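Propose amino acids for all 176 sites.
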């Protein structure tokens, strides 16, 4: 596929999402944060069970997992291949990096905190890019072109930064 066609396909995907498939971002973003927290609860129940030896934590973990699966289905429409698991792990990693960044900020290490916050935000936007089909799950690197070749003036140079820049422009939750 030639470069012009790749760029046009990419821009058409973004325009389609922006115009024809608007999301209720306030609800979907809130739901994604809720799912992140359910993943964290699963992790804490796992460690509580391990630390205390009480299997009741595993039973509760299973109930929380079922709830998380039900809610994640509302966000992840494409079950092909590894999209489900990638999506879950993107949300989990984003949440964890956000928490570690918050702890670094509390300790006064702003540079470390800001770096972790950026990584968290980039992973969160990759989740949306994947699930809104802006990012090609089979070849994510093919969905983006170099700074010299792209018509959209993003300042970010790495793939995740480019995704965050695009998602930030397409998913403007303040637009009415």
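Proposal:
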């Amino acid at each position: 596929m030639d470069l012009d066609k790749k760029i046009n396909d990419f821009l058409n995907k973004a325009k389609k999402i922006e115009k024809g498939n608007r999301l209720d971002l306030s609800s979907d973003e809130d739901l994604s944060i809720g799912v992140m927290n359910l993943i964290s609860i699963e992790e804490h129940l796992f460690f509580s069970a391990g630390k205390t030896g009480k299997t009741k934590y595993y039973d509760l973990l299973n109930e929380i997992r079922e709830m998380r699966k039900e809610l994640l289905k509302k966000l992840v429409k494409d079950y092909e291949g590894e999209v489900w698991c990638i999506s879950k792990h993107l949300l989990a990693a984003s949440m964890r990096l956000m928490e570690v960044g918050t702890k670094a900020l509390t300790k006064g290490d702003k540079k470390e905190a800001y770096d972790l916050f950026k990584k968290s935000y980039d992973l969160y936007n990759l989740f949306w890019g994947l699930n809104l089909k802006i990012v090609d799950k089979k070849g994510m690197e093919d969905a983006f072109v170099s700074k010299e070749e792209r018509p959209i003036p993003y300042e970010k140079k790495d793939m995740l930064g480019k995704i965050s820049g695009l998602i930030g422009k397409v998913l403007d939750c303040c637009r009415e």
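Residues 94 and 120 are 4 Å apart (CA to CA). The two ends are 37 Å apart (CA to CA).
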